[in-house]
């Protein structure tokens, strides 16, 4: 009995250590996976037959990978390893290789195989939306890298476009923003209710609702829904993911000038796209605007400001226009004037004799005067009007700039050239001293304390045809400034703003704020003019202006200039 128990105990003592040793070896094998070295040698996913070389290395449609394609996910491991940090979006999913491999060469026979090694050093930097180029089998790697650098430095990639967005309905009506395709630091542009570039105070809009980005391959702006709850419409067509509850991103769709983006049900955003030639100003330009509110947190005012710029004026190289139209009684007159004034200037300057006279005399007074006169004649606004300020800028053959301004109303423009402050406009409010002198000369002087005519505080404006028929003291004759010369080596800027800005900020303070902002952001690679315009707008909001506020800022400093010469 005791002998049997002893044998049983010795057997258990030998078996338990062997079991433990077996389990340890099994765990080591599972952790090391030595079989992968054998299966990888014979895996068909590592080879391509000659007959299959005409297919793309990575398909445009990822779903096709499941339909008999011999390239498995293992083949993409090297190509995507450098891109793991990119956020998942439709633009990152387009990181594909569209260069097809060459067809069978004389050195390869039917049925032969070729092994493709993925070289991670081949692509130095990847960005969302970028397309990978696969080198030809016979093309040296150095030539591929050299060509990629040349493409990155190509001026065509820097032409781009300017996108402006205006909220035309909903709780944030009147809110505007603009961005240029060459402003990489500001892209992509997000639209939403929280921490977005276009911040919409609308409960039906998601925190991150939609995104706009520049597609350099197509030279087009693209809009994508970011998995919003209430969806995104483009010209009344749904562009969100079909499964609205999945919170998946939709597919990118191209944007065109005049499109209407609908976020939720009430917030409509108007899209304005200028051509790539118009956006290539030879100096830095920034725009910012806000309808403001009568009290903090209150309902936004109706937006009646319209700001615009064109460089060059269509068909007229080396000339550009920059302006603000501030409407009253509605926005219709401001929209009409902002469209007509650039067209009139372009039409007048299309005469080569007129253009040559401007360049020779450095004076565009006649051009500006006729443009305002023709605009007034063509406007059909009887019960709406607008203040209008237009800055005409042109360059000579030595790339010196000249600027001349015309205005009616109270939207002002100032310039600062090498520290010298220059007022480019005249105040045409009834209460201003210069305007009261003009009104007195008409033979019908104002009474003491009178600050309005027929309820209007302006005596000069475009439109308001009914008022002008009632009282001949109303006028559309613009004030025209002297021409300001900005030399190549000059440090200069121009600031145009509607009266909502000047109501709370003096000319002197505006110049100080602009110079401080320029100094603060000059070291960065961002568009300094856009930063300055944004800071000035924020300052007006902080000081609680009670009127629509729009700002256009031009920075002529040499370090922000690009050549604007036209090849003859």
Compact summary:
With about 575 residues, this protein is of the alpha+beta class.
What do you see in this structure?
The protein is of the alpha+beta class and 568 residues long. The protein is 27% helix and 23% strand. The chain is built from 14 helices and 25 strands. Strands 15, 16, 17, 18, 21, 22 and 23 form a 7-stranded antiparallel β-sheet that branches. Strand 12 and strand 13 form a beta hairpin. Helix 7 packs across helix 9 and helix 13 packs across helix 14. It is elongated, with a radius of gyration of 33 Å. The N and C termini lie far apart (117 Å). The relative contact order is 0.09.
Keywords:
EC 3.1.3.16; alpha+beta; elongated; 27% helix; protein serine/threonine phosphatase activity; PP2C_BS; 568 residues; single chain; protein-serine/threonine phosphatase; manganese; seven-stranded antiparallel beta sheet; disordered C terminus; six-stranded antiparallel beta sheet
């Amino acid at each position: 009995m005791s002998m049997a128990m002893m044998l049983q105990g010795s057997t258990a003592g030998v078996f338990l250590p062997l079991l433990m040793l077996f389990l340890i070896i099994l765990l080591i094998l599972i952790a090391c996976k030595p079989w992968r070295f054998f299966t990888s040698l014979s895996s068909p996913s590592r080879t391509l037959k000659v007959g299959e070389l005409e297919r793309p290395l990575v398909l445009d449609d990822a779903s096709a990978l499941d339909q008999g394609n011999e390239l498995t996910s293992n083949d993409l491991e090297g190509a995507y390893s450098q891109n793991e940090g990119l956020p998942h979006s439709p633009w990152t999913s387009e990181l594909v290789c569209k260069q097809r491999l060459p067809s069978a060469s004389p050195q390869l026979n039917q049925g032969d195989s070729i092994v493709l090694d993925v070289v991670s050093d081949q692509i130095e930097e990847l960005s969302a939306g970028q397309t990978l180029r696969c080198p030809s089998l016979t093309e040296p790697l150095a030539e591929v890298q050299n060509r990629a650098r040349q493409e990155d430095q190509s001026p065509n990639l820097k032409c781009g476009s300017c996108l402006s967005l205006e909220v035309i309905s909903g709780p944030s009506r009147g809110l505007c923003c603009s961005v240029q395709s060459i402003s990489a630091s500001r892209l992509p542009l997000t639209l939403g209710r929280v921490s977005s570039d276009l911040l919409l105070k609308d409960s039906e809009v998601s925190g991150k609702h939609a995104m706009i980005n520049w597609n350099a391959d197509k030279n087009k702006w693209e809009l994508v829904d970011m998995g919003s709850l209430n969806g995104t419409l483009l010209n009344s067509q749904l562009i969100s993911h079909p499964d609205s509850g999945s919170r998946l991103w939709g597919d990118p769709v191209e944007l065109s000038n005049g499109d209407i983006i609908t976020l939720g049900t009430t917030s409509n955003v108007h899209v304005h796209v200028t051509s790539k030639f118009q956006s290539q100003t030879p100096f830095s330009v920034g725009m910012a605007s806000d309808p403001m509110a009568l009290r903090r947190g209150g309902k936004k005012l109706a937006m009646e400001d319209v700001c615009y710029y064109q460089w060059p004026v269509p068909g007229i190289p080396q000339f550009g226009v920059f302006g603000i139209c501030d409407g009253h009684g509605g926005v219709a007159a401001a929209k009409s004037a902002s469209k007509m004034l650039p067209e009139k200037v372009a039409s007048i300057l299309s005469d080569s004799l007129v253009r040559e006279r401007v360049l020779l005399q450095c004076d565009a007074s006649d051009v500006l005067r006729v443009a305002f006169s023709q605009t007034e004649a063509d406007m059909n606004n009887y019960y709406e009007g607008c203040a209008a300020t237009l800055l005409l800028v042109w360059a000579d053959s030595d790339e010196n700039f000249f600027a001349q301004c015309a205005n009616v109303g109270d939207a002002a423009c100032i310039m600062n050239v090498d520290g010298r402050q220059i007022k480019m406009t005249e105040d045409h409010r009834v209460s201003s001293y210069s305007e009261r002198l003009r009104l007195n000369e008409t033979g019908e002087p104002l009474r003491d304390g009178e600050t309005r005519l027929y309820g209007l505080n302006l005596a000069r404006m475009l439109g308001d045809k009914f008022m002008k028929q009632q009282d001949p003291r109303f006028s559309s004759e613009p004030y025209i400034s002297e021409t300001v010369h900005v030399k190549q080596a000059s440090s200069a800027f121009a600031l145009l703003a509607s009266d909502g800005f000047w109501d709370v900020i003096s000319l002197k303070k505006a110049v100080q704020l602009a110079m401080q902002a320029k100094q603060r952001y000059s070291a960065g690679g961002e568009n300094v003019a856009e930063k300055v315009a944004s800071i000035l707008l924020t300052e007006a909001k902080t000081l609680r202006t009670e009127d629509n506020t729009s700002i256009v800022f031009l920075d002529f400093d040499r370090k922000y200039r690009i050549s604007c010469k036209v090849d003859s």
